[in-house]
Design goal:
By secondary structure, this protein is of the alpha/beta class. The chain has one domain (6-260): Rossmann fold (3-Layer(aba) Sandwich). The protein has 9 helices and 9 strands. The protein has helices spanning 15-26, 38-52, 66-75, 101-129, 151-173, 192-196, 207-219, 229-240, 243-260, and strands at residues 6-10, 31-35, 56-60, 81-86, 133-137, 179-183, 188-189, 205-206, 224-225. Strands 3-2-1-4-5-6-9 form a 7-stranded parallel β-sheet, sandwiched between helices. It has a two-stranded parallel ribbon with strand order 7-8. α2 links the parallel β2 (31-35) and β3 (56-60). The longest helix has 29 residues, at 101-129. The structure holds NADP nicotinamide-adenine-dinucleotide phosphate.
């Protein structure tokens, strides 16, 4: 069934974001597709138009810049937004000492500042209408106490899970109909690895499964969404064992990635 309100997806040019776009197109949502690679967004928009008759607006945008985030919000001022998926993000894997400072601060800009800015600006709009869904794509990394050899990525995702849970509670206390939640997958087979320069130590799930599960739980208004049983068990154990053990265990897993490259 055709929907009138749009779904906006950042990081729609590949991986989980591209599948979010596909599934929301199937559900009849008109889309706003956001990422830096314009050609990929255009190809996706053309394919979704042909397959599902989806109305797509593409907005090439580098969300690492605050001004670009503000421009994005201005460009969608004229449309009604039902769903906003804050999905753009990336990681890096190496000992903190050896990491490239520019890349790390860029990660903070995309994974933290852009998610923060876009959630805030979108929330104000949605709260005025008392309707809408904001899904922040975090990671199971954000629910663990720390991730040696991927320290910055884990820290950025911890910010996302923390702020999302806090805002969701504020909305609940205000009896708002607006939803905010975070999707916290473990490894997912996407281009993430190439960008982070790693190979997963654990087998990844498909982007299809991840996005499908994420949307199902989002519509059920679940605040923290963990797509796999294995990761749920791991995170539960993480709450039982001392934090320093968990940090050491996570470090062992990340180190395996370093050894594989
Ligand atoms: N794959 C995993 O194992 C995994 C696990 C847990 C969480 N996640 C999270 O899932 C989200 C999606 O990642 P993915 O796995 O689908 O990886 P991916 O295939 O590399 O996709 C990342 C997306 O983010 C976009 N992006 C990156 N930097 C951007 C920027 N500065 N401005 C605008 N868009 C930007 C990329 O588009 P352009 O390059 O075209 O800009 C791309 O569309 C990320 O937040 C990631 O942290 C991934």
């Amino acid at each position: 069934m055709k929907k009138s309100g749009y779904a906006v997806i950042t990081g729609a040019s590949s991986g989980i974001g591209m599948i979010f776009a596909e599934r929301l197109a199937q559900k009849g949502y008109p889309l706003v597709l956001v990422a830096r690679r314009k050609e990929r967004l255009k190809n996706l928009a053309d394919r979704l138009k042909e397959q599902y008759g989806t109305k797509c607006r593409i907005i090439p945008c580098d969300v690492s810049a605050l001004e670009e985030c503000k421009r994005l919000m201005q460009e969608i001022e004229d449309i009604s937004v039902d769903i906003f998926i804050n999905n753009a993000g990336f990681g890096d894997c190496c000992p903190f000492m050896n990491g490239n400072l520019e890349k790390e601060l860029g990660m903070v800009d995309v994974n933290v500042k852009a998610v923060h800015t876009l959630m805030k600006l979108m929330l104000k709009r949605m709260c005025d209408n008392n309707y809408g869904y904001i899904l922040n794509v975090a990671s199971s990394a954000g629910l663990l106490p720390g991730g040696p050899y991927m320290a910055v990525y884990y820290a950025t995702k911890a910010y996302v899970t923390s702020i999302t849970q806090a805002v969701a509670q504020e909305l609940k206390e205000a009896k708002s109909n607006v939803y905010v939640g975070c999707l916290c997958p473990g490894p997912v087979d996407t281009e993430f690895n190439q960008v982070a320069n790693v190979e997963f130590a654990l087998p990844g799930i498909s982007a299809e499964y991840c996005a499908k599960y994420g949307l199902k739980k989002m519509f059920q208004k679940k605040v923290v969404i963990i797509p796999t049983i294995g990761m749920k068990v791991l995170l539960t154990l993480g709450r039982i064992f001392p934090r320093k053990w968990c940090v050491a265990f996570t470090g062992l897993q990340q180190k395996k990635k370093l050894c594989r490259r």
